[in-house]
Amino acid sequence: MLNHLVFGAGLIGCYLGANLQYNKQRVTLICREHIADKLSKGIVLTDYLQHRIAVEPIPSLTSVVDAMDSFDVIWLTVKCTAVETALAQLRLIVGSKTTLVCCQNGLGSEQLVKQAFPDNQVLRAMVPFNVVELADGHFHRGSQGTFAIEDNPANFNFVTDLVSHIESPVLEASICNDMDSLLWAKLQLNLGNSINALADIPVKAMLQQRKYRQVIAQMMRELLLVTDAKSIELPKVTSISAHYLPVILNLPDWLFKIVANRMLAIDENVRTSMWWDISQAKPTEIDYLNGAIVEQAKLLGISTPVNQKVIELIYQLSNNKLQNKRKITGKQLYNLVMPKI
């Protein structure tokens, strides 16, 4: 049994922590006080396939100052934008043998952790699904995907144990031996996050409208120009391969519903994390998502106009400078970002 700390336990962190508890691990959550209050009667996890597990209340703290234990594993589940702030607190509890698992979206935020803890094992993890809170202590995974943890050949047995400690009837988990490629593939899927924030409608409703899909598809094409130039072969993380995905998204609505029925097999009310960030007036992860593509593209001399324009729109929305604020229709968005394509 290992001693785990989930640092920054929100929706994803509570979901992961409850899975660790289900597998009889020692678990502590660092979370906000209002979240801790909701967890006082235990946690229920469900998924879109109607699986269900329940666990007893998990010890929850609001500050690392109250953490008396030394931890074998710290799961860092804060947003990319909060990683740097978290480092000061982590320094108080990271031991010489602590492994840190970075569960952020996008690219590059784990470098801050590696720089802060150069002598510790730092692993990346990929979270491919959305989680919503249906009631106090009830967390629901609304979409498909296998949680992946980065391999470390020098410590393979340890990583294997981590996978076994976190997988459950409501969470598939695996080891990934090429996390760079996997995170680029995940980034391709995350490009819909910004469009969901601008559209201000559930993801399923967004995907049912071709104009939104066409914008997402063009952002994906720009990403693929970058990964091709870097000779990165993207693994298949959905039922549709990376290079074929923009083609599918560009199909007429009636044909898309037939061909991509699995892509639409998500809960009616699921929205992306960027939508939630905007709704709660929090900083978004746009710089680590679309911004990562633009940054890498500039180094390669590749043009990414649609991603750049979407970044501008998200900044305007975040700063309340976007006309009509929310609910940009698919046609409006298409005309804003793709007038010459």
From TrEMBL:
Residues 179-315 form the Ketopantoate reductase C-terminal domain. InterPro entries: 6-PGluconate_DH-like_C_sf, 6PGD_dom2, ApbA, KPA_reductase, KPR-Related, KPR_N, NAD(P)-bd_dom_sf. It comes from the Bacteria. Transmembrane segments: none annotated. Its EC number is 1.1.1.169. One of its GO terms (cellular component) is cytoplasm. Coiled coil: none annotated. Keywords: NADP, Oxidoreductase, Pantothenate biosynthesis. Pfam families: ApbA (PF02558), ApbA_C (PF08546). It catalyses: (R)-pantoate + NADP(+) = 2-dehydropantoate + NADPH + H(+). GO terms for biological process: pantothenate biosynthetic process. Residues 5-151 form the Ketopantoate reductase N-terminal domain. Belongs to the ketopantoate reductase family. Catalyzes the NADPH-dependent reduction of ketopantoate into pantoic acid. This is 2-dehydropantoate 2-reductase.
